[in-house]
Amino acid sequence: MDRQELMLCGLQISDWIAVVEIIVTSAIGIWVAITVQNNLTKSRYLKEYFINEVKDIRDLYKSFINRLYKSEISAIDIKDWFKVMSERTQNLDKFLGEEYCKFDSFLIVSKHAEIQQTITSMDEFNENYKEPTISFANSSKKEILKLHSELSCVLTQRIIDINSAKKRKRKKKSI
Q1: 71 contacts 133 by C-beta, under 8 angstroms
Q2: Is residue 144 within 8 Å of 101, Cβ to Cβ?
Q3: Axis-axis angle for helices 107-120, 13-69 (nearest 10)
Q4: Intra-chain end-to-end CA distance of the chain, in Å
Q5: In 3D, which of 164, 172, 174 has the Cα closest to residue 43?
Q6: pLDDT one-digit tens code per residue, 89-142
Q7: Distance in angstroms (rounded) separating the CA atoms of residues 151 and 68
Q8: How many C-beta atoms surround the C-beta of residue 84 within 10 A?
Q9: What is d(CA 85, CA 57) in angstroms, rounded to the nearest whole number?
Q10: 99: burial class by Cβ within 10 Å (0-12, 13-18, 19+)?
Q11: Sequential DSSP letters for the chain
Q12: pTM confidence score
């Protein structure tokens, strides 16, 4: 073979191999960058969703405690509110446990249940169950505030845990 046969468009075969190598390497690099970026974006989005859910629970509790302090809520409304929040906290802790390695306990659910049990067993709650609003004694308010403070710490810890959590490895389902 002479040199003329080994050239195509003015490039030798070795030049074409180098061009193909550059194209393939670039394509792999772009594919890796896009894949990694998409995975990071999906992971961050999921963490943000859970963090926002924790913040919503914190805000709902703040509002609830303020209404208790101002005697603006009835025992029936308190009971109904606790039912809704029980579902919400159970779902949050359940999904966190399914998605992330660090979440095998039900911290939020446990603290919520403790607050619910404490408030619904207070004398003021039971004595004024059918009244339009409940006024809690200062000693009861102090106990409620202490529990709310503990819940705030649990919620803050959950946000920290979510930010540092690693995704669980999913087993592929066999067909």
Answers
A1: yes
A2: no
A3: 10
A4: 55
A5: 164
A6: 999 988 888 888 666 578 899 999 999 999 999 999 999 999 999 999 999 999
A7: 16
A8: 10
A9: 8
A10: middle
A11: --TTTTEETTEEHHHHHHHHHHHHHHHHHHHHHHHHHHHHHHHHHHHHHHHHHHHHHHHHHHHHHHHHHTT---HHHHHHHHHHHHHHHHHHHHHHHHHBTT--S-HHHHHHHHHHHHHHTSHHHHHTTTSSS----HHHHHHHHHHHHHHHHHHHHHHHHHHH--BPPPPPPP-
A12: 0.73
| Residue reference for tokens 């405690």 | 65
Place of tokens 């974006």: 41
According to DSSP, the residues that pair with 12 across neighbouring strands are 7
d(CA 145, CA 151): 10
Residue 7 φ then ψ, to 5°: -110, 140
What is the biggest distance separating any 2 CA atoms in the chain, rounded to whole angstroms?
A: 106
Q: Find out whether 119 and 144 touch, Cβ atoms under 8 Å.
A: yes
pLDDT of residue 1: 47
CA distance 128 to 118: 15
Residue entry with tokens 């003329």: 4
Q: How far apart, in Å, are the Cα atoms of 111 and each of 31, 52, 89?
A: 45, 19, 10
Tokens 């106990």, located at residue: 143
Q: Which two three-digit tokens encode residue 36?
A: 């990694």
